[in-house]
Write a structure and sequence with these properties.
The chain is of the alpha/beta class and 372 residues long. Among the domains are: 194 residues, Alpha-Beta Horseshoe (Leucine-rich repeat, LRR (right-handed beta-alpha superhelix)), CATH 3.80.10; 62 residues, no CATH class. Helices cover 33% and strands 11% of the residues. It contains 7 helices and 15 strands. Helix 3 links the parallel strand 12 and strand 13. This is Trophoblast glycoprotein. It comes from Myripristis murdjan (pinecone soldierfish).
Length: 372
């Protein structure tokens, strides 16, 4: 009896081992071609792939498909539901289009990297409403400024409720589109470094509860009072503003005063003037109110000089065009001049003839008799 019990136990253990092995096999499904798989990480890097491999193990947690030639991703890119996938890296693929429902089968995606692509189209329906995305890297992801407003429309949808970190550095943003961050109610870290930004419009950063904002290496010359007030309303916010071409004139006075009284700028000691010439490389913290001048007499003089030069060039161009027209129509002008000459000659001959008649009495009498 005890022997049969032992056999039964062994059979049960064997069945359990088989089931466990079967589960592992089903979960893994083998590693896709041109990829390497380790634990729950799949890497398909620099393989000239045109699409994301479909035969991904269902237990994949991190997927790296970087440095390939994947121009677009759509719902077809992830046909299998990957419940365990949390990290997705798709950088450096020359990607141009992110289509709707593309992340529908990745319900637990937390970290997404689309950096260093050439995105022109980003569907507003790319993410499901119940997505769990928290960290999003879009550094250098977009093609250029002309596509920015439409490409960033997905940020306005309001379904990225768990997003806490957004990297939009190294993009040609210039001006942030209206309401771009209003739907990001959990955003605490935002990088806009080196994005050619020339101004921060009123209300742009009002909604997100930012703790860290990187605005380094942009084209900011000043910050308006409304923006400074928004910064002050976020006491936990740390700013990074170095590398901007600050113009130290009367328009920057409020910023200088704010910098001296605020501790929100982490790199405040690295902020220096670029203009005017007398204050070049001068630290903003050391600029006095008396130095912030708005005397544009010198600038106006140079503008006037430039205008005069431009006017001279325009007049010269008009003269050249006039001479060119004369040259091209020289035969017609010559004919016209001959006609005028002949008309003048006929007129003068008639006048001369009448003069001779009037001056000679005999011819005058003859002329009178002939008239009779």
């Amino acid at each position: 009896h005890s022997h049969s019990v032992m056999i039964t136990r062994k059979n049960r253990l064997g069945v359990m081992h088989l089931l466990l092995l079967l589960g592992v096999v089903l979960a893994c499904q083998g590693c896709p071609e041109k990829c390497t798989c380790s634990s729950q990480t799949v890497k398909c890097q620099n393989q000239d792939l045109n699409a994301i491999p479909h035969s991904l193990p269902t237990n994949t947690k991190a997927l790296f498909v970087t440095g390939n030639k994947i121009s677009r991703i759509s719902a077809e890119s992830f046909p299998t539901r990957l419940l365990l996938l949390t990290d997705l890296y798709l950088s450096g693929n020359k990607m141009e289009s992110v289509e709707e429902m593309v992340f529908e089968n990745l319900p637990n995606l937390v970290r997404l990297d689309l950096s260093n692509n050439k995105i022109r189209i980003f569907s507003a329906k790319a993410f499901p409403d119940d997505n769990k995305l928290q960290i999003f890297n879009l550094s250098g992801a977009f093609f250029n400024h002309s596509y920015m407003n439409t490409a960033l429309s997905f940020l306005r949808v309001g379904n990225l409720l768990q997003l806490t970190s957004l990297d939009m550095s190294n993009n040609d943003l210039v001006v942030l589109p209206d309401g771009i961050f209003t739907g990001l109610s959990s955003l605490t870290n935002l990088s806009l470094q080196n994005s050619s930004i020339i101004s921060i419009q009123n209300g742009t950063l009002k909604v997100p509860p930012l703790h860290d904002l990187d605005l380094r290496d942009n084209s900011l010359r000043e910050l308006p009072n409304a923006t400074l007030a928004e910064f002050s309303l976020k006491p936990d916010l740390q700013l990074h503003l170095a590398g901007n071409p600050w113009r130290c004139d009367c328009f920057i006075e409020d910023l200088v005063v704010w910098l001296k009284s605020s501790d929100q700028v982490a790199d405040v000691h690295n902020l220096t003037c670029v203009e005017p010439e007398g204050l070049t490389r001068h630290p903003l913290l050391q600029v006095e109110k008396s130095q912030l001048d708005c005397n544009y007499a010198g600038d106006m003089k140079s503008v006037l000089e430039t205008s005069y030069v431009f006017l001279g060039l325009v007049l010269a161009l008009i003269g050249v065009i006039f001479l060119l027209v004369l040259y091209l129509n020289r035969k017609g002008i010559k004919r016209w001049m001959y006609n005028i000459r002949d008309a003048c000659r006929d007129h003068m001959e008639g006048y001369h003839y009448r003069y001779e008649i009037n001056s000679d009495a005999r011819l005058a009498n003859l002329s009178i008799n002939s008239d009779v």
